[in-house]
Design brief:
disordered N terminus, single chain, mainly beta
Length: 376
């Protein structure tokens, strides 16, 4: 693949693609030394309305999350055949900014476990939605304001929740990370940092490894890759000790993480690298028009690379080959052979089978917000 000329639509996507699909310095280094502080008192949470340990889903699903620009937003669970299996709505969290000069960079207000989608409303209430349509309330986090946002990631077994409460200023942000039981209680010691970088709780690998993203706290003019994770840190959820780092200055994170790892792109030689959760290695033979979104399949066998605003090419890792380019702008995988695109009323979301090239429409709107099962 040679250098591609991008349309304005793709340029806008690249500037903000990671927040639609994901997931620091903590667990990375902030501008000021991080500190451990005593655990704060947990906010009172409404009682859970279902068992804390539901059965894991036996069929993979994709998640679409609607725009939070209005008073409410939608969440949708989508099957690999494009069918809508469950949906819900919530009041949209407050828009946040870094003073008056820049937008704060925050992820979508959702998380997935191996059985459910979790989503947060304007008051900080976290609810769940199961593929069968069951729903309920599980906890309440500090409510968002014009300068504060709570972010969260639920463990695959639905028992624990990692929370970052981030307060933004014109010079950056102060992030406080803690982990507690999903219904509240049994909280770990809080980790905190202040600086120009923020933290996103992005997901869990099993129940003993928490994935935290290092991100810029505030938008820097909308340049390519301005607004997504710079690194993913694998940390101990009890002590917040960092065990491993993927991504970094020489290999830019290019897509949402999956159980197999993440794609990062070398800006020096425009190559796609695959980094799993314990090591980094180069994928030889595939050049990319860096920077551009690229998503690793859950089994680590394929990469979906966005070519332009209307096209995605899917490459098999071992042979660096694939079918004809797909006519959609992929933002994530549902399972090992199906990718999904987001969209709105003008550009309907779609699901594509990467083996035979079949593309079907999805009767919902929104951006990719993860998949079920959600464990990494």
């Amino acid at each position: 693949m040679g250098t591609q000329h991008r349309s304005p639509a793709l340029a806008a996507l690249i500037a903000c693609f990671l927040p639609i699909a994901f997931a620091t310095a903590c667990v990375g280094q902030g501008d000021k030394a991080a500190s451990h502080s005593p655990a704060a008192t947990a906010s009172a949470a409404p009682p859970a309305t279902a068992s804390p340990s539901p059965r894991p889903a036996t069929t993979p699903y994709g998640v679409l999350v609607g725009s939070q620009g209005g008073s409410s937003y939608s969440v949708s669970i989508v099957a690999f055949d494009g069918k809508l299996v469950a949906s819900g709505t919530a009041t949209a969290p407050a828009q946040v900014a870094c003073g008056t000069s820049a937008a704060a960079i925050v992820p979508l207000p959702v998380s997935t476990s191996d059985s459910r989608l979790y989503f947060m409303d304007a008051a900080g209430t976290v609810r769940y939605l199961a593929p069968g349509g069951a729903t309920g309330t599980v906890t309440t986090l500090p409510a968002g304001t014009a300068s504060r946002r709570s972010m969260f990631a639920v463990s695959p077994d639905d028992r624990r929740i990692a929370v970052v409460v981030e307060d933004f200023t014109s010079s950056g942000a102060t992030a406080r990370l803690y982990v507690e039981d999903l219904g509240g209680g049994n909280r770990t010691t809080t980790y905190s940092q202040t600086g120009t970088y923020g933290l996103w709780p992005t997901g869990w690998r099993g129940t003993t490894n928490l994935i935290v993203a290092k991100v810029r706290a505030c938008a820097q003019g909308g340049s390519p890759l301005c607004c997504g994770p710079l690194e993913f840190h694998v940390v101990d959820p009890s002590s917040f000790t960092r065990r491993f780092t993927i991504g970094g200055p020489t290999c830019v994170v290019a897509g949402a993480p999956t159980p197999a790892g993440v794609v990062c792109e070398s800006l020096a030689n425009r190559s796609a690298n695959i980094e799993n959760w314990t090591e980094s290695y180069m994928m030889g033979g595939l050049s990319v028009p860096a920077p551009t979104p690229a998503h690793l399949s859950p089994d680590g066998q394929r990469i979906a690379v966005v070519v332009d605003a209307d096209t995605t090419s899917v490459y098999a890792i071992k042979s660096v080959s694939g079918p004809a380019p797909l006519a959609l702008l992929a933002c994530g995988w549902i399972d090992d052979t199906h990718v999904m695109s987001g969209g709105d009323a003008q550009h309907q979301p779609r699901v594509a089978d990467v083996i035979n090239g079949t593309i079907v429409p999805v009767p919902a709107q929104g951006d990719c917000g993860g998949r079920i099962p959600g464990g990494l």
